[in-house]
Design the sequence.
């Protein structure tokens, strides 16, 4: 397996659509990468929740992944791709595709209909997926508010590390900072996915982050992290309050993905990313 030692800021990128017909707009990806690079964001997560990966068909997901892979390679940005949230044969196809095109890492949701209720069942599912991309660092996507899969992450991590050869860690999108902090361990990569608890998470030892607001106001996350790391706790708390107020203001305009995509369009009008797809429009 190739190594994975990324630390820092990774944006879960929006999938760009044409404003004309709603088709995937590959032409927006290179300027999108340039914008992130200019704002000190050194990684992207493709086809995640923010990227509406579960609203794309398999062909579109592969097309988008290939375009991001090319631009990320050109600009030396790490690219992780989310392959779950689909029927098992499609997840396998996406895993094989990610390995074939040289993705830096894959992230995988649990089975979303026959939901695993135990750590053992979740590990068994992910092991079957991971064997189709054996040379690619493999991560689990923990986002229980969407998946309703609520197994204990510290226990799961210990089991997965023993059973899945290319397993490297998780994206932890939960407000339970106590459980998240218990996941931290030397040799693991635990990505924080919850923007509103960034300050506390950095103070607890998190050093890797996949947060939607990195697309819109990365400078706020950078300030919070820098302030905590230099011991300016009050400044970090103040900036976290500012970030949370910014998030609340954005969410006045709709659900998470739709409102965040609107905020991105307002900040980056030259990058054509279009609207969200149904059912997010409803």
Sequence:
């Amino acid at each position: 397996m190739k190594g994975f030692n990324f630390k820092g800021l990774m944006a879960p990128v929006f999938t760009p659509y044409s404003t004309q017909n709603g088709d995937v707009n590959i032409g927006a990806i290179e300027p999108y990468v340039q914008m992130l690079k200019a704002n000190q964001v050194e990684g992207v997560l493709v086809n995640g929740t923010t990227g509406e990966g579960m609203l794309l068909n398999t062909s579109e997901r592969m097309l988008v992944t290939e375009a991001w892979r090319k631009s990320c390679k050109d600009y030396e940005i790490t690219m992780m791709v989310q392959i779950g949230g689909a029927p098992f044969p499609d997840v396998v196809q996406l895993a094989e595709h990610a390995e074939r095109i040289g993705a830096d890492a894959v992230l995988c949701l649990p089975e979303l209909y026959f939901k695993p209720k135990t750590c053992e069942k979740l590990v068994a599912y992910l092991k079957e997926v991971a064997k189709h991309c054996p040379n690619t660092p493999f991560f689990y996507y923990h986002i229980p508010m969407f998946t309703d899969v609520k197994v204990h992450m510290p226990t799961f991590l210990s089991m997965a590390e023993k059973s899945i050869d290319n397993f490297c860690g998780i994206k932890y999108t939960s407000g339970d900072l106590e459980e998240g902090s218990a996941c931290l361990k030397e040799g693991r990569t635990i990505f924080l996915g919850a923007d509103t608890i960034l300050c506390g998470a950095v103070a607890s030892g998190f050093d890797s982050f996949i947060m939607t607001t990195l697309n819109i106001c990365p400078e706020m996350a950078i300030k919070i992290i820098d302030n905590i790391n230099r011991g300016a706790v009050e400044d970090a708390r103040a900036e976290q309050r500012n970030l949370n107020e910014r998030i609340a203001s954005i969410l006045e305009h709709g659900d998470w993905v739709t409102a965040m995509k609107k905020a991105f369009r307002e900040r980056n009008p030259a990058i054509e990313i279009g609207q969200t797809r149904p059912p997010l429009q409803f």
Summary: The chain has a mean pLDDT of 97. The CA atoms of residues 55 and 278 lie 8 Å apart. DSSP finds eleven helices and eight strands in the chain. Strands lie at 8-12, 43-46, 78-82, 105-108, 138-142, 167-172, 189-192, 208-210.
